[in-house]
Each structure stands twice: as C-alpha cells, then as structure tokens.
Amino acid sequence: MISTLLSRRGGTDGAPARRFVYGADYNPEQWPRDVWEEDVRLMREAGVNLVSLGIFSWARLQPAEDTWDFAWLDEVMDLLHAGGIGVDLATATASPPPWLTTAHPEILPVTATGETLWPGARQHWRPTSPVFRTYALRLVRELATRYADHPALVAWHVNNELGCHNVYDYSDDAARAFRDWLRARYTTLDALNHAWGTAFWSQHYTDWEQILPPRLAASHPNPTQQLDFKRFSSDALKDHLRAEREILRELTPDVPVTTNFMVTGNTKGMNYDDWATEVDFVANDHYVHPGPQDRDELSFSANLTSGIAGGRPWFLMEHSTSAVNWQPVNVPKRPGELARDALLHVAHGADAVCFFQWRQSAAGAEKYHSAMVPHAGADSELFRAVVELGATLRTLAPVAGSEREPARVGILFDWDSWWASEQDSHPTSLLEYRQEALDWYSALLALGIRADLVTTRADLHRHQVLIAPVLHVVPADLAKSLTRYAEQGGHLITTYFSGIVDENDHVWLGGYPGALRELLGIRIEEFGPLLAGDTVELDDATTGSLWTDRIEVTSPETEVLARYRTGEHTGRPAVTRRATNGGSAAYVSTRLGVDGLTVLLPRLLGPAGVESELPAAARGSVELTVRSRDSERFLFLVNRTDRTVEVPGLPGDVLLGGTGADGTLVLGPRAVAVLRQPAG
Questions:
Q1: Whole-structure pTM over 0.90, yes or no?
Q2: How many CB atoms lie within 10 A of CB 538?
Q3: 318 flagged as catalytic
Q4: Alpha-carbon distance 93 to 124, whole Å?
Q5: 401-449 pLDDT per residue, tens
C-alpha cells in the first residue's frame, strides 16, 4: 500500500507508481506566508513527495469554540498539490487549545499522586474524558468533511504519538472507565477477586465502585491491578484511535488511516502488537539513543516494527536528520549516519522515510531539534545530505513494495511480560526486559546471523529457532504452543524469570520455571538474583550478572551445556538443553550480556544448523537484511563500523554501493549497499 500511496489520488509528480515515500512533518503555521513557496521549491529539490500536515494546529484551526479558520490550511494544501506533494493530514487532536482547557479543566490528566498536568506543553488530555472526546471528534468530522475530496490528501494521521505523555491517567474519568473495562474482562466481582488475589491484604471487593486505578498507596499496590491498569491504559488510547478512525472511514472510505507508533527505546505503555490491526498501515517514530548499542537498538526497533506489521511494508513517520533536543546531551549525527539510519529502517521493511521535521523551528521547545532544512538553511551540509538521500531512495525504487524475507531465527517479544516482569516487589528491580532482548539481538548481529523480532500473535513455526528472553507471563495456551513448537522440531531458547506467572500474574506452582518446567526438563526451587555489580563465572569462560538459578535437572533428555564456576551455585548447571522430538528447549539462567551470548549462541544454534549467510570476513562488521517479492530478492548490507569493510562472494546486481576491481563489494564507514538477486 505505502509504495503506491501517492498514486491513489492526485498530487503525484508523474513518477512510477512503485517508489518510496520521502518527507517530513510540515508546520507551515510556524512561518510567514512568504516562506511557504520556498518550502515547496526546496521539497521538490530534495525529492520530498509527502508531508504530514496539521499535527499541532488545533488552536489555529479552531481559535474559539464556534470559530473555524481553514483558509490557511486550504492554501497550504493547494500549494503542496501544485508542487506534486501529497499530504498525510493529521486530525490535529494531539494538543487541545487553551480555550478548551480553560473552559473544561476536567479534561486534564491526573497523576498517581493526584496532581493535575496543566497546559503549557502538549498531550494535556485524558484518554477517557467524554468531554475531550466530544470536542476532538467534532474537529475530526470538520476536517474530514472539508478535505475529503482534496486531491493532495493521500492518508489520515490520527492524533500524534498517542500516549507519549498521557498514557497513564488516574483521574475520576479513568476510574470509571477502568471499572467498565474490568466488568467487560471479568464479568463478575468473584472472577475479578480471584484474578487479583484479593484475599491478600484484605482487598476483597464487594462493589464495583470500590475499585480504583493504582493510585499512590501506602505500600506496593496489588500487582494484578497494576498489570490490568497497564492493559486498560493501552486499550483506552486504542479506543480513542478507533473513535477518530471510524469518522474518517465514514467520510473518506478510500483514504487509508494510520497513527504513528513509538517502537523505540523504553516506550512501553502502548501494546502496539495489539494496535496494529486498527490501522490501514503501520507507522512508527524512532530516535537514536546514544550508547554502545545505539544502531543495534535502531535495527531492533525497526525489526520489531516489521514484526508488528506482520512483515508487510510500513511507514517511518519520524526520525531525525541529526541531533534531537530532549536528551541530556544532544549529539549531532556524523557524516553518513543520516543515510545509514534511514536505510536501515528501509532494510527492515520501511517503504516511507520521513523526518521530524521539514524546517527547523525558530521558537518553541523543539527549536534545537534538527530538521531537513536546518537553521543554517539550504546552503548546508545537512540539507545536501537530505537531497542525496532523496536521490538514493529514487535509485532504490525497485525495492519498494517488497516484504522482509523471514529469517531462520525469531526473537519473541511480549508486552505482558515486559509490563509484568518490571513491576515492584519482585526478586530484583534491576531487570530490564527490553535490554535482555536487545542483548540477544546484538549477539546475533555480532555473529552475522539474521533474526526476526516476532510477537505471540505471529506464526511461531516459521522459525527454526525461537528465542524467548524473560518470557515472564505464560498463559496455559502459550505454554502449549511453545511445547508443541519444540516437540514438532523447533528449537526454543528461554531465560531466567520465564514461565513464572499466568495471565493474571499468578505464579505457576510446583517450582520454576513454572509453565515451561516440564518442557525444559529442569526445576528451580528459589531465585538467586545478584546484587548490582556482582558477577559469576561459568565454565565456558563467560560471565553472568543480575540473576542465577539453582537448577535441578529432572529429565534424562536434559544436558548441561555450561556450569557455574563461581558463586553460590558453583558446579551446578547454568545453561541446559533438553532434546525433544527433533527439536530442543534450552534454558539460560543468568544474564550473559552481548559478549557472553556471542560465545554461547553457536552451541545453541548448532542443532538447528543455523549459521551466518555472510562471508566470514564480514561477520560482525556487516548487518544483512533481506527483502523479497516473487521474482527477486534485495540484500541490504549495512556497515556497523567506522572503517571500510569488504564483502566478497555475494552474487547480484549492485543497486547501491561500490565494488573493487575484483568485484568485491566495498562498504565505506557507516555505508549501506543493496544487491538485487533473482528469487529462488
């Protein structure tokens, strides 16, 4: 859909139907009228063919409750259409205007401690406020009615980064909506009391009105109440997405609808796997977080976005051309990183490459956030890099519309486990669910092995190896699916604190790892978390941290792959693997980090015969990702290093990149190459 998005309606520039979308958030309301035509001219120079418009313009569109001003937006839409640029039109509901919050302060969010979040920034609204919903949907209807037939309109952009700042609201509106959500989930108070384990600490409920969100309490709030509130909060935002979407589909049924997810960093409040079926195409925002795994995290997030999208092409709605403004130190990108970051998203299935934003703001909280046109103007190295990327995307047009080719290894990512494993009153507060998954991913990259980030909604049997780090929440049905996977020849790898609780956060009794105990052929009586800074050594020369388990092997099919050499469990198993009917189920009882996992993984992958598809000289230095369609494959090779890397022996036509005299592919520092091969 995305590669042909601009061909659905008018506003195209005559280019072939299959192409990449390229553009940015565009905020013309921040600039005088005489800048607008210059913007369109520079957009055409850069190869921009789509912009997201009107995202934060509610106060401009509706300056008072009964006053509307669409004249400026009409003019911008017309200018963009005349310039051959399509519009992803936002519903503008992300930030309510001052007149609305002044008249109705009851729409403002409330924190767990009872403090009101006041206007002055953005997203100052309650997802469950019926008052906000009324005003927001009125605006959506006005926009959809006015622009339904405008030739520049190619897609709708619902709200913006739903839940970025208001995912958890503890107001009375939220309390009422939470009770309604709980009634729908449990039907009866008896069922809720059982699920929440309210016999503990005298929490038994006898009336629905007694139930509240997990506001500030004297001690640890009920853990299942906390988990359900996380589920409810994600669903409340999803419900708002649906409400806006239904109006758009009613009035513009032929215009696709999306919203921008935030599969990035530690943004975990929204279950995007659950949201994905609510949009016509998945869109994502991603920003690099500086650190030793910064580009691995980018690859991880792009890969997970592809998994959420079911492997189909998706839309990169926002990323940065250079520095952001909201980190403690905002480091600019080095030469080549603008293109490499963008093309790494493309490698993982993005058919659209867009930035925040088009022109760098002169005022406001994001004035130091980079843009396609920086404060220095078009005569700048950054804008020249933007123009060059536009040309590169035109060169890669044959790739558009292809899907990511499945890898042999899958890494299972589960929102319930993320939410529940990091709650309070657990064996350790140092556990980081996403970091553990990222470490496995980085180790596979270091070995040159492709992997897919997948969710429990996916077909797990597509992968010969399935890695499930810290799969803490395992309902009975998932336990059966994983057992069936291993017994039918799949190779499961899981870790500490996995299989521990069911969907109600109730412990599976009889010993750990609970729901997976028999499949793994081990039993653990008590957890052994480590203090910060403490480590243990294993007899395979790796080092563990964070966690240890006292493992008892309970099945003759279970072999010990590594033992503890130091610590409380010296001589006891640290890594095990149980053979099944052609498959296996392995358990890693400590956090090994990227270096340790790089040592261990070849032994875990060996039974499945999984090896790198890259030449030995390129493994670890180059990331390989494959997109394909019926007749052809596209190999993306991304240099993970700051040095030149040669990649010999890969056949195919070079779409992007350079070769040496002997035909060897030569990747400069931070460079990307793309090869085209026939399928099969």
A1: yes
A2: 23
A3: yes
A4: 11
A5: 999 999 999 999 999 999 999 999 999 999 999 999 999 999 999 999 9
